[in-house]
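re: that complex we talked abt at group meeting.

here r the seqs, copy pasted straight from the sheet so there may be weird spacing, ignore it
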Amino acid sequence: MISPKLVEVGRHLNVNIITNSEIKTVDGEPGNFTVTLVNHPRYIDPVKCTGCGECARHCPVTAVNRYNKGLDDRRAAFIEYPQAVPLAFGIDTDTCIGCGLCENMCVAKAIQYDDTERESTITVGSIILASGSQGYDPSKLDFLGYGKSPNVVTSEEFERILSASGPYRGHLCRPLDREEPKKIAWLQCVGSRDTNKCGNGYCSSVCCMYAVKEAMIAKEHAHCDLDCAIFNMDIRTFGKDYEKYYLRAKDKDGVRFIKSRVHTVTEIPETGDLTVRFVNEAGEILEETFSMVVLSVGLQVPETSKLLAQQLGIELDQYSFVQTNPFTPVSTSREGVYTCGVFQGPKDIPGSITEASAAACAAGSDLSAARGTDTKVIVMPDQQDVAAETPRIGVFVCNCGINIGGVVNVPEVADYAATLPYVAYTDQNLFTCSQDTQDKIKEKIIEHKLNRVVVASCSPKTHEQMFMETLEACGLNRYLFEMANIRNQNSWIHSKTPAIATQKAKDLVRMAVARSATLKQLKEKVISVNKQALVIGGGVAGMNAALGLGKQGFHVALIEKNNTLGGFSRMLHHTIEGGDIQVYLNDLILEVTGHENIEVITAANVTDFSGYKGNFTTTVVFGPENEKRTIKHGIIIVATGAREYTPTEYCFNQDPRVMTQVQLGDVLEEKGAAELASVVMIQCVGSRNAENVNCSRICCQNAVKNALIIKKQNPETNVYVLYRDIRTYGLMEDFYKEARNLGVIFIRFDSDNPPQVVPGADGMQVFVKDHILQRNLEIEADLVVLSAGMVAEDTTDLCGIMKFNRNPEGYFIEAHVKLRPVDMPGDGIFLCGTAHGPKLITETISQAQAAASRATTFLSKSEIKLSAITAQVDTEHCVKCLTCVRSCPFSVPVFNTEKQVIEIDEAICHGCGICAGVCPRETIQLNYYENDQILCKIEALLAGGM
Amino acid sequence: MGSVHGKTSGSVMVVGAGIAGMQASLDLANSDYYVHLVDKLPTVGGMMARLDKTFPTNDCAM
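got the structure back, here u go
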């Protein structure tokens, strides 16, 4: 999943990647910082290096492979991993013996032994700190046996063990004897939730989920019925749909979850197996033997990041995460410097990506006056029309150093290509991707009047765009290009049989040449972008999204169905950290309503909607008079929110002494806790049950927050929290600990045996079974407080009109849960706040800023060039069977009832080709992949005589 | 907000080229700012490039 991002960053004209470098000093002020960098030597010039790998193949020195966590070796000349960006090797001088072999072997002359440390200076307006985390090193915890028993590994090491590119090629093996384990134990909270032994009091937020994942994947890899056990204090699967994942592991895959913190791990010397000693919930001391133990290590801030913060004068918290405010989650203590990802606080990948976009929004807002002043633009010459010309194909065969040339007889392939139909020029290059070869290709295109180009080299995934740009740079349409992959799909896999590899290279080139002759010039549609935004929902999410856009200079229409702004936050008083929500909310409303770029429309409902990215039209009816208004806008941000679940359980609505946490918040705000003698809180009301499988994420911290308020106001009040798993993730763990220290009593109950509430004349009686005491308890209570979950606002009408997709719980579905957490599947539509899923106010703010950032990537452009690879319908021969309408995953083909034809709008077509594939009459063709453009390749292959 | 003394720069420095740093860089670069993406390692990618699969979809991390 990360590879396309690596390529995109690597190829982006306006991203300058500076590797092997650290920050020395930062001077100046927000908007105009001068940064001095220390550039450590790489010893291989990344501009000249083509990534062919000859240096590593000939390097005689073995070094520990940091990428595979030391579980295997690499050479002193190395690249971290095959997909690395920049795709350039480096020399590890700690192990290099300076033998000179790599320098002799490097055809690109990229080795530079005399490379030295340098300094460089850059000027920037804003700074974003995203220096991430490292796994906790468990060597200090000697009772776990890490570092002594080879079969005790960290979760990071286990990731590499499972990986196909890892030390054991993805075979599930234990390090000691490379035997497949029969039983694996995961020990949770190693380096997290532990102030005693490691000082990391916080919860790392991700370990429960990754342990569940590792157990599931290990079971998939195993040849036997692998037994997986996860030893945990609480299972914290609090994210969107994470509870379903946990239940799948537990109920379907048979992963065992044992509520215990392990006492010791002891190796059995004869077998290398490990005896795990632990106390179960009933207090019995047990021992169980496993073939392997995985330590679920927590996330922590590396020393280098602490140093960085010191150099920049950034305040860190007690655990060295960046100190932030609950209402400005990506701002650091230094103006103009922002943060995101795990340096901000422990979080998972979607959370990091969301926060990264939020930081981009904040950093960009400061500099909007200078937008576009430093960016580079490539101006392409006008395209020449070659449609009427006979194909004149140029074939460039790559040696890729000796990657291809060392196996395939490249001159022979080039000579062969010259004999193929329409081929007007052939050449072979040492590295076809190098900059000087691009210039050479341009020269030859002009000199030989070439109108089609074939490159026989590596993968189009990494190199096609670059070659297409080379064509454009000499006025040729980019779609007149074709690639043959004679490296990844040939020389690498047939390296032992050069004659066969050469023959296959000829076959691949013949196929590519045949297809090339059929390629057509395609015109990319250019659509204009309306620079106005529509934000739906005027709660904390919608208002922050609107502000994020307004500050970047875009006009926003913010529509809210109620008469006032504020949404669900109007019901809340304080964040768990003590931030005053009402003060924040009032300031926010003032800022939004006073902003020159934001127009607030209240009591508004959407009645009509049409259009596509860049060009939407929405009609709203608003105000007491039901006025009608049509808004034209380029993007949409959906922020319709959620509310507290109204319980049907535990006599709620029947007895005034039973209330929700939000109602308790009101009681504490108005009357305080002075009159309360005993309060019982019940968790997971309306969550983690048959009706709503998911965890509502916020209720545990809500209970802890209110319990703390009660205990601080009136230490005499008895507070009981009846829970299943306490999910005070991240830095909120400290508040859970504080609540326990102040005497709040936490009692775990089983979902099969929930508490009973019996209202009496004097008070309430609550019955619950305590697992530790193994006894039924009866608790007297003045108040029973239900930690009610969240439910999405009803958006049925809105979705009927705007065609947004929701999950069964009514939350909107994002484009990709991991990599595109605030994008909706439709282009130009974004999502934030509790409309996406339950979340805290702080998380809502960063997600709203993230949505604004994603929207800005659209709105900052005047026009968008669309891919020409879209589907076209031959309406004359179409029989209107509607198969395409039913098959398209993006609902693009529609039947126009007036014109009686199928229409595919190229502005919204994703070019996936499914409709072309399923059309029984073959009346749909996908540009660039038309039937004859594919069939001719097969014919060319068969023409070689197979 | 502009710079008090000098002119406002249209560039941003992102420190750390993991998934967060890359996303921040791409958003900014696609919003017409120039980005210097700095990392101490020889490659971008950070911790995510060292994972096997990712939850909750079990997609390959790479």
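couple things i noticed - Chain B touches chain A through 62 residues (CB under 8 Å). Chain B has one helix and four strands.
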